[in-house]
Amino acid sequence: MIAKTRKLEFWSGVRDEAPILLGVVPFGLLFGALAISAHISIPAAQAMSAIIFAGASQLIAAQLVGAGTSGLVILMVVFVVNLRHALYSASVAPHVRHLGTAWRLLLSYLLTDEAYAVTITHYNRAGDSPDRHWYFLGAGLTLWSAWQASTAVGIFIGAQIPANWPLSFVLPLTFIALVVPSLKDRAGVAAALVAGMIGLLATNFPYKTGLLLAALIGIVTGLLIEGWRK
Amino acid sequence: MNIWSIMLIAGLLTFGTRLSFILLLDRIKVPDWFRRGLRFVPVAVLSAIILPDLTSPNGTLLLSWRNPQLLAGLVAVLVAWKTKNVILTILAGLAALVVFQLALGL
After folding, report:
1. Residues B61, B82 share a domain
2. In which domain, by residue range, is A67 found?
3. Which of A59, A89, A170 is the mutation pick for testing B, counting most B CBs within 10 A?
4. What is the C-alpha separation between B96 and B100, in angstroms, rounded?
5. What secondary structure letter does DSSP report for B30?
6. What's the number of domains chain A is made of?
7. Cystine design at B40: which of A190, A191, A195, A229 (Cβ 3.0–4.6 Å)?
8. Residue B32 burial (C-beta neighbours within 10 Å; 0-12, 13-18, 19+)
9. ipTM of the complex
């Protein structure tokens, strides 16, 4: 009986995660192909998807590695970009409090944007099944498998593309496609413009530290303008 | 730092962030400014990467209509704004780059 509800939870996690894969797989393909064009080796590109396992920050890291950015700056950027996961962690924490450490380590590793989105919806639904972490596991593993597989296919495609194709230009285009639709209010637009302008002015800062400064001032600008209007 | 050590530390940092509240900080409340500030992180970081990339494609600033990357980037911004579609934005930007490069004889 217990095994049955676990199986049920697991497979509903898999099923609910599946439609989201349509939006995830193109980014896995992109990451694989672009990592190769940034001269990251095939094993390193695949390992990045397993070890970092966070889409946007992997694309940014590939871009920065290709641009010869210092390791420390790359680490700080990846850390800041992934800080939002602390919010997911806080929001999921009460639901996994009863689990052992091994479970909590495993679920933390699988706590991506996409797994969080479906899992928290499931937790917030009525019901008090003690096996809902199996749903989390099903959703998380589904996303994980799709991310690894699409990275592998992307690497394969990237290796076939002639070196003189303007593939490196795909990265700024991808970032444009991510940023522009997310600019919904004045604060967001201000954050983007200020960060972009400072990034431009501070291009020649040593080790690309200008990027960190630009991002920080952009974030503060967004916060200030939002506060103003409240 | 080589790519492998960057990757390992980045992986640990990301895992640590995801683990933070689940394992240790169960009872600490996230401050409101932090929660609100996170919304601006991707927008700010990505914009700070995009703009220098477009205006200085070869490492030197080129703010002119003779810079095909800048022109193609503007086309991509327009397409992203109108369609909100990632694939269309990339394809339009790449097509614009090729057209502008041919037109400018580059």
Report:
1. yes
2. 2-167
3. A89
4. 6
5. P
6. 2
7. A191
8. exposed
9. 0.89
